[in-house]
């Protein structure tokens, strides 16, 4: 299963920061400081519409919303943003963008529901950048903040908004776990107007004093329902209590369940509500298939043939261990496959995603860590090898395909004992799938998924290795002359041992004894003993007589008088 940011322990809010009054769910809303153009006073509870199954009743706006726009140039946005939109090939706003941008640019709170791939990132991102443009953040004090549940979603939001932020000279900082907290703190110290963060890592930086939220005037919660499901609500509320009171709040998600009703009632004031899709998140360009297989053996064969299709596919599976096993099995059968799950480090996950995007990997075996926040262009098929636990997971898994108006298919493999649960899940999602009973060799399977027989030739994926820094000439081991008997130099390199017969006065560290002099001593690592001196290699041991190498010259016995050490010119 997904292992995202671990929620940190909740701490008391720092002193001196403005706090927003908390309230019990059944009580009336607390007073909120008035914004520009609003009159102060007790906030009126918003009227609520009838709630769909599993969701809370959406509030009805008291103040009428501004009408939607059909083109970006109808919006009051900086010219640099409009120019960048054209350069990025974004000509026409998606429905959720056209409906919410006029209101978010005016400073209204937004409650938006739209399926994954419907354009939520630009819906909140353009308004946030336009309203922040021209301002400059102080060190450690961002001006706008986007909270997301996973590292991958944070990176996707950053990548999507970077061209637009650059166009209006705004600096971005991404704060997630699994990466260097020191570097992230350094970025904040240098100043960043826009902060994209996961709650756990941001809490760590706040505790260290590397970030303050008192100047944040625009706050966005993206995929808020998943943050609630993952136990982040205490942290999210603590973070929201530290931002500037009266600031703008925007909450976007593909699903809005009852877990985030508290956030809506406590932190959104008379929000503009927009639901671009029905609660099921159904998309006309997406096909849903439930394929019944006889047993686990047939399921493995069907999975292998689907993975070998001509084109990329994401295959969702329940556990990290199962993902690793399936990826290894597919590689052995000739399918370029890789596993993506929370047990991998962030650099490993980034590398795997890059291999999948560039086609080096065609079958991505993933746990729910990839179910949100990963955008892959032209991905036509998602396969639930293991059916999801609930309809929300199904919608977010399927949201990896049929994005931004493209077409795609979601296929779920179902064993006989899973049939009843799958029917209930589809009913909760409001989806009527195409069903079929298939075997690995059926033409129906090929028609639906493009399945074909794997090549059988094992695939080995190249893993980039970090370059080993080469030693400079000055760092090469040098032969040392620490004295000798009769001019011999029983020197050695670094570790190893050479001795030449004379009395040595003790050991230094536990290393090489130099030949001949009473102050020979041993250095670094090695052993002294025997007679005769052989030059020792990097990690060898010269054992004298009976050891490796020939002694350069015979040495005197330990009790014999020692000659004076020859001067350099006498050698």
Automatic annotation (TrEMBL):
The keyword Hydrolase applies. Residues 285-446 form the Helicase C-terminal domain. Keywords: ATP-binding, Helicase, Hydrolase, Nucleotide-binding. Residues 101-274 form the Helicase ATP-binding domain. Residues 70-98 form the DEAD-box RNA helicase Q domain. InterPro entries: DEAD/DEAH_box_helicase_dom (IPR011545), DEAD/DEAH_RhlB (IPR044742), DEAD_box_RNA_helicase (IPR050079), Helicase_ATP-bd (IPR014001), Helicase_C-like (IPR001650), P-loop_NTPase (IPR027417), RNA_helicase_DEAD_Q_motif (IPR014014). CDD domains: DEADc, SF2_C_DEAD. GO terms for cellular component: cytosol. One of its GO terms (molecular function) is nucleic acid binding. A motif (Q motif) lies at residues 70-98. Residues 1-59, 449-571 are annotated as: Disordered. It comes from the Bacteria. Residues 491-526, 556-571 have a biased composition (Low complexity). Belongs to the DEAD box helicase family. This is DEAD/DEAH box helicase. It comes from Streptomyces tsukubensis. The lineage of its organism: Bacteria, Bacillati, Actinomycetota, Actinomycetes, Kitasatosporales.
């Amino acid at each position: 299963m997904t292992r995202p940011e671990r929620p940190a322990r909740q701490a008391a809010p720092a002193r001196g920061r403005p706090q927003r009054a908390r309230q019990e769910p059944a009580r009336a809303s607390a007073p909120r400081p008035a914004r520009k153009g609003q009159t102060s006073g007790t906030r009126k509870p918003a009227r609520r519409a009838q709630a769909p199954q599993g969701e809370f009743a959406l509030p009805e706006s008291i103040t009428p919303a501004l009408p939607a726009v059909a083109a970006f140039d109808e919006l009051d946005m900086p010219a640099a943003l409009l120019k960048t939109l054209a350069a990025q090939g974004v000509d026409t706003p998606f429905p959720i963008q056209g409906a919410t941008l006029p209101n978010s640019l005016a400073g209204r709170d937004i409650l938006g529901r739209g399926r994954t791939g419907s354009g939520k990132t630009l819906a909140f991102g353009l308004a946030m950048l336009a309203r922040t443009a021209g301002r400059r953040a102080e060190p450690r004090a961002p001006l706008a903040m986007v909270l997301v549940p996973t590292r991958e979603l944070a990176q996707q939001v950053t990548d999507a908004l970077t061209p637009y932020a650059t166009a209006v000279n705004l600096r971005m900082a991404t704060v997630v776990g699994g990466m260097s907290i020191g570097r992230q703190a350094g970025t904040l110290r240098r100043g960043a107007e826009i902060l994209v963060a996961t709650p756990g890592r941001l809490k760590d930086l706040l505790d260290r004093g590397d970030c303050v939220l008192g100047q944040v005037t625009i706050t966005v919660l993206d995929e808020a329902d998943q943050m609630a499901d993952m136990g982040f609500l205490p942290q999210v509320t603590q973070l929201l209590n530290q931002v500037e009171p009266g600031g703008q709040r925007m909450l976007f998600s593909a699903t809005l369940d009852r877990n985030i009703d508290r956030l809506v009632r406590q932190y959104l004031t008379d929000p503009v509500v927009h639901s671009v899709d029905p609660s099921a998140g159904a998309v006309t360009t997406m096909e849903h298939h439930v394929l019944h297989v006889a047993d686990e053996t047939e399921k493995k064969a069907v999975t292998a043939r689907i993975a070998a299709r001509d084109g990329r596919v994401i295959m969702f599976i329940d556990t990290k261990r199962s993902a690793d096993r399936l990826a290894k099995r597919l590689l052995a059968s000739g399918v370029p496959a890789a596993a993506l799950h929370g047990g991998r480090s962030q650099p490993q996950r980034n590398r795997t995603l890059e291999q999948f995007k560039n086609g080096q990997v065609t079958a991505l075996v993933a746990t729910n860590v990839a179910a949100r926040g990963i955008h892959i262009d032209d991905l036509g098929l998602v396969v639930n090898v293991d059916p999801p636990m609930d309809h929300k997971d199904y919608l977010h898994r399927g949201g990896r395909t049929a994005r931004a108006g493209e077409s795609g298919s979601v296929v779920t493999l179902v064993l006989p004992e899973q049939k009843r649960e799958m029917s209930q899940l589809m009913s909760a999602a409001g989806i009527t799938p195409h069903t079929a009973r298939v075997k690995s060799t059926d033409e129906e399977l090929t028609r639906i998924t493009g399945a074909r027989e794997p090549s059988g030739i094992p695939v080995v994926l190249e893993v980039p290795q970090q370059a080993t820094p080469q030693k400079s000439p000055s760092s090469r081991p040098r032969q040392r002359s620490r004295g000798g008997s009769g001019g011999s130099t029983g020197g050695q390199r670094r570790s190893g041992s050479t001795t030449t017969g004379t009395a040595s006065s003790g050991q230094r560290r536990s290393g090489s004894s130099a030949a001949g002099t009473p102050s020979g001593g041993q250095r670094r690592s090695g052993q002294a003993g025997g007679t005769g001196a052989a030059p020792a290699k990097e990690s060898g041991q010269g054992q004298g007589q009976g050891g490796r190498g020939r002694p350069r010259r015979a040495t005197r016995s330990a009790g014999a008088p020692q000659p004076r050490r020859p001067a350099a010119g006498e050698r």
